[in-house]
Amino acid sequence: MKAILRLLLLSCTLGPTSACAQTHTRAAGTPAPQAPLAPRVLGSGFQVGDRILLKVEGDSQFSDTFTVGPGPGLTLPVIGEIPLVGVRRADVEPYMSRELARYLKDPVVRAKALIRVSVVGEVQRPGFYSLPGDAVLADALMQAGGPTREARVPGMTIERGGKPILQGDSLQLAFARGLTVDQVGLRDDDRFVVPRLAMHDSERTWRIFGIILATVPAVIYAVTRAY
């Protein structure tokens, strides 16, 4: 079901734009202009306020969600602070395994960096959600129940401090390429904003809806074949 929702979301986001681009290419006989790449907003190092989901087999005191503090560093029971300076979020598991091996005998460690984002606007369940760094952007919308019938998906933005950091073609391309939270450099308290359809968008909405209806049988067939 998640795979179906993700494909429908991408169809809704990219369908009309892609179709128009192909039509223009055929008519003009020239290659369609490429959309700009989604920018790497920030590096993927840890920031104060980030969270790490840590699990150590056989040791419950280290199996919890911990918040990154100043330094940045992670303060664990008994052990104290483990520095995170220069550690990428994607590398947190091998790094924590090495650090904990200094205090524990042959620990089996699982660690994931979690980013707390909010999803607001035209989604089924607006609110705050924690995402691992390797989650694709569409997972934030799926955790929020997906867009409502009144959502203007192509107008969606990702904001930081009230200012957009990803929008338009860059954001659509990030969704289409399956870029992850870590790859686009999201931080705690970044916000997905899904706007509402305006009255003049009704015709476009029906075109998108028609594309989704045409896509559903193929998507369902592909997913059922995969399983």
TrEMBL record:
<protein>
    <submittedName>
        <fullName>Uncharacterized protein</fullName>
    </submittedName>
</protein>
<dbReference type="InterPro" id="IPR049712">
    <property type="entry name" value="Poly_export"/>
</dbReference>
<dbReference type="InterPro" id="IPR003715">
    <property type="entry name" value="Poly_export_N"/>
</dbReference>
<feature type="transmembrane region" description="Helical">
    <location>
        <begin position="206"/>
        <end position="224"/>
    </location>
</feature>
<keyword id="KW-0732">Signal</keyword>
<feature type="domain" description="Polysaccharide export protein N-terminal">
    <location>
        <begin position="47"/>
        <end position="110"/>
    </location>
</feature>
<feature type="domain" description="Soluble ligand binding">
    <location>
        <begin position="117"/>
        <end position="164"/>
    </location>
</feature>
<keyword id="KW-1133">Transmembrane helix</keyword>
<keyword id="KW-0472">Membrane</keyword>
<feature type="signal peptide">
    <location>
        <begin position="1"/>
        <end position="21"/>
    </location>
</feature>
<dbReference type="GO" id="GO:0015159">
    <property type="term" value="F:polysaccharide transmembrane transporter activity"/>
</dbReference>
<dbReference type="Pfam" id="PF10531">
    <property type="entry name" value="SLBB"/>
</dbReference>
<dbReference type="Pfam" id="PF02563">
    <property type="entry name" value="Poly_export"/>
</dbReference>
<keyword id="KW-0812">Transmembrane</keyword>
<dbReference type="InterPro" id="IPR019554">
    <property type="entry name" value="Soluble_ligand-bd"/>
</dbReference>
